[in-house]
User: Which sequence fits this backbone?
Protein backbone atom coordinates (compact mmCIF):
# COMPACT_ATOMS: atom_id res chain seq x y z
CA UNK A 1 0.00 0.00 0.00
CA UNK A 2 2.72 2.46 0.98
CA UNK A 3 4.71 1.66 -2.15
CA UNK A 4 2.80 4.39 -3.98
CA UNK A 5 4.39 7.82 -3.42
CA UNK A 6 1.05 9.63 -3.40
CA UNK A 7 -0.42 7.35 -0.74
CA UNK A 8 2.71 7.83 1.37
CA UNK A 9 2.30 11.59 1.00
CA UNK A 10 -1.34 11.39 2.14
CA UNK A 11 -0.49 9.23 5.14
CA UNK A 12 2.40 11.51 6.16
CA UNK A 13 0.37 14.70 5.71
CA UNK A 14 -2.54 13.36 7.74
CA UNK A 15 -0.12 12.39 10.51
CA UNK A 16 1.31 15.91 10.65
CA UNK A 17 -2.17 17.49 10.59
CA UNK A 18 -3.20 15.42 13.62
CA UNK A 19 -0.29 16.82 15.62
CA UNK A 20 -0.23 20.46 14.53
CA UNK A 21 -3.95 21.02 15.21
CA UNK A 22 -3.83 21.18 19.04
CA UNK A 23 -0.48 22.98 19.10
CA UNK A 24 -1.78 25.47 16.57
CA UNK A 25 -4.70 26.26 18.87
CA UNK A 26 -2.30 27.11 21.68
CA UNK A 27 -0.30 29.32 19.32
CA UNK A 28 -3.44 31.19 18.25
CA UNK A 29 -4.69 31.63 21.82
CA UNK A 30 -1.30 32.84 23.03
CA UNK A 31 -0.54 35.00 19.98
CA UNK A 32 2.72 33.14 19.41
CA UNK A 33 2.72 33.05 15.62
CA UNK A 34 6.07 34.85 15.50
CA UNK A 35 7.51 32.29 17.92
CA UNK A 36 6.50 29.51 15.52
CA UNK A 37 8.12 31.44 12.69
CA UNK A 38 11.32 31.80 14.69
CA UNK A 39 11.60 28.07 15.34
CA UNK A 40 10.76 27.17 11.74
CA UNK A 41 13.43 29.58 10.43
CA UNK A 42 16.00 28.06 12.77
CA UNK A 43 15.24 24.63 11.28
CA UNK A 44 17.39 25.50 8.26
CA UNK A 45 20.37 25.96 10.56
CA UNK A 46 19.67 22.48 11.91
CA UNK A 47 19.66 21.10 8.36
CA UNK A 48 23.00 22.74 7.61
CA UNK A 49 24.61 21.44 10.81
CA UNK A 50 23.25 17.95 10.13
CA UNK A 51 24.85 17.92 6.69
CA UNK A 52 28.08 19.37 8.04
CA UNK A 53 28.35 16.88 10.92
CA UNK A 54 26.74 14.02 8.96
CA UNK A 55 24.07 13.33 11.56
CA UNK A 56 20.31 12.73 11.31
CA UNK A 57 18.56 15.84 9.96
CA UNK A 58 15.40 15.45 12.07
CA UNK A 59 17.42 15.11 15.28
CA UNK A 60 19.61 18.10 14.39
CA UNK A 61 16.60 20.28 13.61
CA UNK A 62 15.01 19.36 16.95
CA UNK A 63 18.20 20.20 18.87
CA UNK A 64 18.65 23.56 17.13
CA UNK A 65 14.97 24.52 17.57
CA UNK A 66 15.12 23.56 21.25
CA UNK A 67 18.29 25.62 21.75
CA UNK A 68 16.71 28.62 20.05
CA UNK A 69 13.66 28.30 22.33
CA UNK A 70 15.92 28.16 25.40
CA UNK A 71 17.92 31.12 24.10
CA UNK A 72 14.70 33.11 23.89
CA UNK A 73 13.91 32.36 27.54
CA UNK A 74 17.40 33.42 28.64
CA UNK A 75 17.39 36.60 26.54
CA UNK A 76 13.95 37.57 27.87
CA UNK A 77 15.42 37.55 31.38
CA UNK A 78 18.69 39.35 30.58
CA UNK A 79 18.06 41.59 27.58
CA UNK A 80 16.11 44.83 27.66
CA UNK A 81 14.48 44.18 24.28
CA UNK A 82 10.83 43.27 23.81
CA UNK A 83 9.83 39.69 22.99
CA UNK A 84 8.96 40.46 19.37
CA UNK A 85 12.35 42.12 18.85
CA UNK A 86 14.12 39.09 20.32
CA UNK A 87 12.07 36.76 18.15
CA UNK A 88 12.94 38.75 15.05
CA UNK A 89 16.62 38.71 16.00
CA UNK A 90 16.66 34.95 16.56
CA UNK A 91 14.54 34.12 13.50
CA UNK A 92 16.57 36.01 10.93
CA UNK A 93 19.93 35.32 12.56
CA UNK A 94 19.37 31.56 12.61
CA UNK A 95 18.08 31.58 9.02
CA UNK A 96 21.10 33.59 7.88
CA UNK A 97 23.48 31.30 9.78
CA UNK A 98 21.86 28.30 8.12
CA UNK A 99 22.27 29.76 4.63
CA UNK A 100 25.88 30.73 5.34
CA UNK A 101 26.63 27.25 6.71
CA UNK A 102 25.16 25.66 3.57
CA UNK A 103 27.56 27.79 1.49
CA UNK A 104 30.47 25.99 3.19
CA UNK A 105 29.24 22.66 1.82
CA UNK A 106 30.15 22.97 -1.88
CA UNK A 107 30.52 19.22 -2.31
CA UNK A 108 27.12 18.44 -0.82
CA UNK A 109 24.11 18.70 -3.10
CA UNK A 110 21.33 20.39 -1.16
CA UNK A 111 17.72 20.67 -2.32
CA UNK A 112 17.20 24.08 -0.75
CA UNK A 113 13.74 24.53 -2.23
CA UNK A 114 12.70 21.19 -0.77
CA UNK A 115 13.77 22.26 2.71
CA UNK A 116 12.20 25.71 2.38
CA UNK A 117 8.86 24.67 0.87
CA UNK A 118 8.70 20.95 1.59
CA UNK A 119 8.73 17.84 -0.57
CA UNK A 120 5.91 15.69 0.76
CA UNK A 121 5.88 13.53 -2.37
CA UNK A 122 9.37 12.29 -1.48
CA UNK A 123 8.56 11.00 2.01
CA UNK A 124 9.63 7.44 2.77
CA UNK A 125 8.17 4.77 5.02
CA UNK A 126 10.86 5.72 7.56
CA UNK A 127 9.71 9.34 7.45
CA UNK A 128 6.14 8.21 8.07
CA UNK A 129 7.26 6.15 11.06
CA UNK A 130 9.09 9.17 12.50
CA UNK A 131 6.02 11.37 11.99
CA UNK A 132 3.61 8.96 13.69
CA UNK A 133 5.88 7.87 16.53
CA UNK A 134 7.05 11.42 17.21
CA UNK A 135 3.53 12.77 16.78
CA UNK A 136 2.07 10.23 19.18
CA UNK A 137 4.68 11.19 21.78
CA UNK A 138 3.88 14.89 21.32
CA UNK A 139 0.13 14.33 21.72
CA UNK A 140 0.63 12.12 24.77
CA UNK A 141 2.76 14.76 26.50
CA UNK A 142 0.30 17.48 25.43
CA UNK A 143 -2.56 15.62 27.11
CA UNK A 144 -0.69 15.72 30.43
CA UNK A 145 0.23 19.43 30.22
CA UNK A 146 -2.96 20.64 28.50
CA UNK A 147 -4.65 21.86 31.70
CA UNK A 148 -1.72 23.97 33.03
CA UNK A 149 -0.99 25.26 29.52
CA UNK A 150 -4.57 26.38 28.99
CA UNK A 151 -4.77 27.81 32.50
CA UNK A 152 -1.56 29.79 31.90
CA UNK A 153 -3.04 31.05 28.64
CA UNK A 154 -6.06 32.44 30.47
CA UNK A 155 -4.17 33.80 33.49
CA UNK A 156 -0.53 32.93 34.23
CA UNK A 157 -0.55 34.29 37.78
CA UNK A 158 -3.73 32.42 38.70
CA UNK A 159 -2.36 29.16 37.29
CA UNK A 160 0.81 29.69 39.32
CA UNK A 161 -1.19 30.39 42.47
CA UNK A 162 -3.10 27.13 41.99
CA UNK A 163 0.19 25.21 41.89
CA UNK A 164 0.01 24.18 38.22
CA UNK A 165 3.62 25.23 37.51
CA UNK A 166 2.82 27.06 34.26
CA UNK A 167 6.50 27.95 33.70
CA UNK A 168 7.37 24.26 33.41
CA UNK A 169 4.36 23.72 31.14
CA UNK A 170 5.53 26.57 28.90
CA UNK A 171 9.00 25.04 28.65
CA UNK A 172 7.50 21.68 27.71
CA UNK A 173 5.35 23.44 25.11
CA UNK A 174 8.47 24.92 23.50
CA UNK A 175 10.07 21.48 23.26
CA UNK A 176 6.87 20.09 21.75
CA UNK A 177 6.98 22.85 19.14
CA UNK A 178 10.59 21.96 18.33
CA UNK A 179 9.59 18.32 17.89
CA UNK A 180 6.67 19.14 15.60
CA UNK A 181 8.80 21.37 13.39
CA UNK A 182 11.47 18.69 13.14
CA UNK A 183 9.06 15.95 12.07
CA UNK A 184 6.93 18.12 9.77
CA UNK A 185 9.71 20.00 7.98
CA UNK A 186 9.73 17.59 5.06
CA UNK A 187 5.97 18.00 4.53
CA UNK A 188 5.57 21.75 3.98
CA UNK A 189 9.10 23.11 4.50
CA UNK A 190 10.54 25.47 7.07
CA UNK A 191 8.87 28.57 5.58
CA UNK A 192 5.35 27.11 5.56
CA UNK A 193 5.23 25.14 8.83
CA UNK A 194 3.83 28.09 10.76
CA UNK A 195 1.04 28.50 8.21
CA UNK A 196 -0.06 24.89 8.70
CA UNK A 197 0.02 25.44 12.45
CA UNK A 198 -1.99 28.66 12.44
CA UNK A 199 -4.51 28.57 9.58
CA UNK A 200 -6.52 25.43 10.56
CA UNK A 201 -6.54 26.60 14.20
CA UNK A 202 -7.67 30.10 13.19
CA UNK A 203 -10.46 28.58 11.10
CA UNK A 204 -11.50 26.23 13.91
CA UNK A 205 -11.70 29.18 16.30
CA UNK A 206 -14.71 30.46 14.38
CA UNK A 207 -16.52 27.13 14.69
CA UNK A 208 -15.74 25.76 18.13
CA UNK A 209 -17.62 26.25 21.39
CA UNK A 210 -14.71 25.22 23.64
CA UNK A 211 -10.94 24.65 23.65
CA UNK A 212 -11.05 20.87 23.22
CA UNK A 213 -13.61 21.16 20.42
CA UNK A 214 -11.42 23.74 18.72
CA UNK A 215 -8.43 21.39 18.85
CA UNK A 216 -10.44 18.55 17.30
CA UNK A 217 -11.86 20.78 14.57
CA UNK A 218 -8.36 22.08 13.80
CA UNK A 219 -7.20 18.49 13.33
CA UNK A 220 -10.08 17.73 10.95
CA UNK A 221 -9.52 20.93 8.97
CA UNK A 222 -5.80 20.20 8.74
CA UNK A 223 -6.49 16.72 7.38
CA UNK A 224 -8.96 18.07 4.82
CA UNK A 225 -6.42 20.73 3.75
CA UNK A 226 -3.74 18.06 3.28
CA UNK A 227 -6.01 15.86 1.17
CA UNK A 228 -7.38 18.76 -0.88
CA UNK A 229 -3.93 20.29 -1.35
CA UNK A 230 -2.36 17.05 -2.51
CA UNK A 231 -5.15 16.24 -4.96
CA UNK A 232 -5.01 19.83 -6.21
CA UNK A 233 -1.26 19.52 -6.64
CA UNK A 234 -1.75 16.31 -8.60
CA UNK A 235 -4.46 17.85 -10.79
CA UNK A 236 -2.79 21.18 -11.60
CA UNK A 237 0.89 20.21 -11.20
CA UNK A 238 1.54 22.75 -8.45
CA UNK A 239 4.04 22.48 -5.54
CA UNK A 240 2.58 20.15 -2.93
CA UNK A 241 3.53 22.00 0.27
CA UNK A 242 2.26 25.42 -0.83
CA UNK A 243 -0.86 23.74 -2.28
CA UNK A 244 -1.71 22.36 1.17
CA UNK A 245 -1.35 25.81 2.72
CA UNK A 246 -3.47 27.37 -0.04
CA UNK A 247 -6.20 24.77 0.60
CA UNK A 248 -6.13 25.65 4.32
CA UNK A 249 -6.39 29.34 3.41
CA UNK A 250 -9.43 28.70 1.19
CA UNK A 251 -11.23 26.98 4.09
CA UNK A 252 -10.39 29.94 6.34
CA UNK A 253 -11.82 32.39 3.80
CA UNK A 254 -14.95 30.25 3.44
CA UNK A 255 -15.37 30.32 7.20
CA UNK A 256 -15.47 34.12 7.04
CA UNK A 257 -18.52 34.09 4.78
CA UNK A 258 -21.75 34.95 6.66
CA UNK A 259 -23.64 32.61 4.33
CA UNK A 260 -21.63 29.69 5.67
CA UNK A 261 -23.86 29.66 8.74
CA UNK A 262 -20.97 28.97 11.07
CA UNK A 263 -21.55 29.69 14.75
CA UNK A 264 -18.93 32.16 15.78
CA UNK A 265 -17.94 31.03 19.23
CA UNK A 266 -14.57 31.38 20.83
CA UNK A 267 -13.05 29.53 23.75
CA UNK A 268 -12.19 31.74 26.72
CA UNK A 269 -8.55 32.73 26.43
CA UNK A 270 -6.19 35.56 26.98
CA UNK A 271 -5.99 36.14 23.23
CA UNK A 272 -9.79 36.57 22.78
Assistant:
Amino acid sequence: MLDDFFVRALVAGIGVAMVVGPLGCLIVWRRLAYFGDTLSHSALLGVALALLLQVNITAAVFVVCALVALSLLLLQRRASLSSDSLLGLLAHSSLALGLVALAFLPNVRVDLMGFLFGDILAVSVTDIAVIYIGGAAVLLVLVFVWRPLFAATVNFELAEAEGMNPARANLIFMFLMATVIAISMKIVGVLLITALLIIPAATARRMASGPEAMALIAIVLGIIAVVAGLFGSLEWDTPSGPSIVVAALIFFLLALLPAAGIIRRRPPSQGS
Notes: The first helix runs from residue 5 to 30. The radius of gyration is 18 Å.
